[in-house]
């Protein structure tokens, strides 16, 4: 399978680790350059559409193209509403934040019920299990992990525990692969902050209100 990656080198490496070397991969870091290669590839993984959602227009005339777009910070429905033209490409949402693609199960969403069959066929071709979740900002896993990270920042801000103690307690107590601050470093404070901001705007749930200490670190990035 020919797979176009739109994003950074780290996204290409994570995709290769996830789906193996049997496929042919191509990397483009800019949507304007990537647009001319969409139709020439069997599949597209767009890791950076959430940074510039209006670029969804490059998929408007790409009939039969299958495209996974990173919907951790913006839903498929919101992307479709931003488009000035009908999107002819088949869009699937996926969790494209750093560290998450390498999980055993691919977390995905669809905009229309009839897309589920095509999603299942595509995941079989990629030899991956998948979990279909609701098309909502934050999906499931990113929303939970980023909320835990935010709570950890509140704990440090209140002086209850150090970052090192919290990381150790979470790994030993919950068997998480990383502590909240280790996870934040791997994901990136920018992604964590922006995801929480998007979820809070979508839900108005106080659980996602961003800790000022996290905001301070975000502003330094």
Kindly report the CATH topology of the largest domain. Rossmann fold
- How many helices? The count is 9
- Shape from CA axes? globular
- Number of strand segments: 7
Helix content: 40-55%
Low-confidence stretches: none
Strand arrangement in the largest pleated sheet: 2-1-3-4-5-6-7
Gyration radius, rounded: 18 Å
Outline the biggest β-sheet: 7 strands, mixed
Count of discrete structural domains: 2
Topology:
Blueprint: E1 2-6, H1 9-19, E2 24-28, H2 31-34, E3 43-46, E4 66-70, H3 76-82, E5 90-94, E6 105-110, H4 115-126, E7 129-132, H5 141-157, H6 163-174, H7 180-187, H8 189-203, H9 212-220
Parallel strand pairs: 1-2, 1-3, 3-4, 4-5, 6-7
Antiparallel strand pairs: 5-6
List keywords for this structure.
single chain; 221 residues; alpha/beta; Rossmann fold; N-(1-d-carboxylethyl)-l-norvaline Dehydrogenase, domain 2; 2 domains; seven-stranded mixed sheet; 9 helices; 15% strand
